[in-house]
Specification:
With 560 residues, this protein is α/β, with parallel strands linked by helices. 62% of the residues lie in helices and 7% in strands. The chain has 22 helices and 7 strands. The strands form 2 sheets. The chain has a 4-stranded mixed β-sheet. The longest helix is centred in the first third of the chain and has 30 residues. The radius of gyration is 28 Å and the shape is elongated. The two termini are 28 Å apart.
Length: 560
């Protein structure tokens, strides 16, 4: 009984204690998977690395063989589970949330966990946030599916899982919330915002409990910049916008070029390229955090930083472009720090004697992240949280806005995630009407005051209609015609005829949203549906007419 009440409550597009508590639980489930994922990587790396993600101390032969072996194992596991389950990462999560309320296939998630762990253990230039987001969304959707929650609540909880995944990856709960709203859901609604915020906090706290409160940018020293730097920051932002456009274009070029090949040879080619880079420039291996360490320790070594930048750029483009499971954000952060540190070489002439390499490294990260992902606000909050430095806010805003506008207006750049979705043929666009209706469970607006009659006898139906209130709908059922709505046909005026009109009814699950009902009825712009219990399709719970959906779209849309 309490579960039924919970489902009815969650069908409403409103903030509730129940939804907030479920958001916390979703955050805990996501954090569990992500902590397990990170511990797995740390355990295996500790067997052969002195410092996590630092492959420079490995003997050359081991360093070269590891990506090859890992690529082969990833390909074998993907072949074993089926390459049809090899759609992974943040783009796939966006597609599932937009078009399937966040329901995540289990085999895809298994591929993401195993493949992502192998890629990160062996030094591929991919980030851990892609697998984290995928697993977080899966954990949340599993919770919603287990409780048979309405799909509108499942959609929100999947967003909670994504937020927990980002927060657990980088220890940035506020940036995680903004990322979900800006990149994944692409909307800001208070009743969605609150549970997602709680899930992000939960994910961050759980991660801090296991791994501590440190962040990847803790080593970087932030120095205040005078106003004389601002014109140069505008130029830096423009350059970062151009680099982001070039990065996205080249990544899509690699994806399109190797598309004719099947996944197995593609992954092996990725392993070969990673091995070559590992042999030549071992500093470019790993998720990108080792590049940050090098930028901090050797900010004046322009030759070394430039070599690592070029190698890491190639390693990232070919790893992601050829299908190695992993995220894009981690490497982009590392690349941004390297670019920003190189830009600081010229900025030193503005402030001689001041160590500003760390500040420019962070600004490079912010600008590249904003322009690549089309997420300026998420980039700004990431910088604020990772540095805990208020001095960085104004310079970061200058670089971020300049980079974003340059990439968008001068180059026509689009979010790399959306470009990947378009190429893969995974839809993510929904109409404004559908988006509004997705937020309301069908149980919130169905008419529960109805009468059900198991008979096709016209006299009995007429007598039942006569005895009933004219406002109460009558649903009749017989084996031949199924469920139908019976009502007087006012166009028939003959006293001798039994003037009854029948409207065929199609069934819809109590777990559905008004968007699902809209899709069924939108062609006729009329009719009705009967709502059956998800757990017992013989139990009719209510009736929903087209007029009710039309009323919500025209009158209540602003409330959604």
């Amino acid at each position: 009984m309490w579960l039924e009440q919970l489902r009815r409550r969650l069908a409403k597009p409103k903030t509730s204690v129940q939804l907030c508590l479920l958001g916390v639980v979703a955050g805990l489930i996501a954090a569990f998977f992500i902590i397990l994922f990170r511990l797995t990587i740390l355990f295996f790396q500790s067997l052969f690395l002195e410092t996590p993600d630092d492959f420079t101390t490995l003997p050359t032969l081991e360093r070269v063989l590891m990506p090859l072996i890992a690529a082969f194992l990833i390909a074998c596991f993907a072949a074993f589970t089926g390459f049809k389950h090899y759609r992974l990462g943040i783009p796939f999560v966006i597609h599932r949330i937009k078009r399937h309320y966040g329901q995540m296939p289990l085999y895809n998630t298994v591929n993401q966990f195993v493949g992502g762990a192998l890629a990160l253990i062996s030094g591929f230039s991919v980030g851990r946030e892609g697998p984290s987001v995928h697993m977080g969304a899966t954990g949340a959707s599993m919770l919603a599916d287990k409780l048979h929650l309405p799909h509108n609540a499942m959609r929100t909880l999947s967003g909670c899982g994504v937020a927990a995944g980002i927060a657990a990856s980088f220890n940035t709960p506020l940036a995680a919330v903004i990322f979900v709203m800006e990149v994944v859901l692409r909307e800001y609604k208070v009743h969605i915002f609150v549970p997602i915020m709680l899930a992000a906090v939960t994910g961050a706290l759980a991660t801090q409990f296991v791994f501590g409160e440190g962040s990847e940018l803790a080593l970087i020293t932030i120095a205040p910049l005078s106003g004389w730097h601002y014109p140069y920051l505008i130029l830096c932002g423009m350059a970062l916008g151009a680099i982001a456009f070039s990065f996205n274009q080249n990544l899509m070029l690699i994806i399109k070029t190797f598309k004719p090949l099947s996944m197995f040879p593609r992954l092996l080619i990725a392993g070969c390229i990673a091995s070559l880079i590992a042999y030549a420039v071992p500093h470019a291996m790993g998720s990108g955090m080792s590049a940050i360490t090098i930028a901090v320790e050797s900010p004046d070594n322009v030759k070394l930083l430039t070599t690592i930048l070029i190698a890491k750029l190639l390693a990232t483009l070919f790893a992601i472009g050829l299908g190695i499971p992993g995220g894009l954000i981690g490497p982009v952060i590392g690349l941004g720090v390297l670019i920003g540190t190189l830009m600081a070489f010229f900025a030193q002439y503005i402030s001689p004697g001041t160590d500003i390499a760390g500040t420019y490294g962070v600004l490079g990260m912010a600008g590249l992240l904003a322009a690549t992902l089309h997420a300026p606000l998420a980039a700004l909050t990431t910088v604020m949280e990772l540095t805990s430095s208020p001095e960085i806010i104004v310079p970061a805003m200058i670089v971020i806005t300049t980079a974003y506008v340059t990439a968008l207006q001068f180059f026509g750049n689009r979010s790399i995630f959306l470009q990947q979705l378009d190429f893969q043929g995974l839809p993510y666009h929904v109409s404004p009407a559908t988006e509004a209706l997705q937020k309301v469970g069908i149980m919130d607006d169905m008419d529960e005051d109805f009468k059900l009659l198991y008979s096709d006898d016209k006299e009995q139906i007429k007598n039942t209609l006569d005895a009933m209130d004219s406002q109460t709908p009558l649903i009749v059922f017989d084996e031949e015609n199924g469920y139908r709505l019976a009502e007087y046909d006012l166009t028939l005026m003959s006293d001798e005829a039994i003037n009854i009109n029948y409207i065929s009814l199609q069934g819809i699950s109590s777990q559905a949203t008004l968007a699902d009902a809209f899709d069924i009825l939108k062609d006729k712009r009329s009719g009705a549906l009967y709502v059956y219990n998800l757990l017992d399709n013989q139990q009719i719970m209510g009736l929903l007419r087209w007029d009710q959906i039309h009323h919500i779209l025209t009158i209540r849309n602003s409330l959604l």
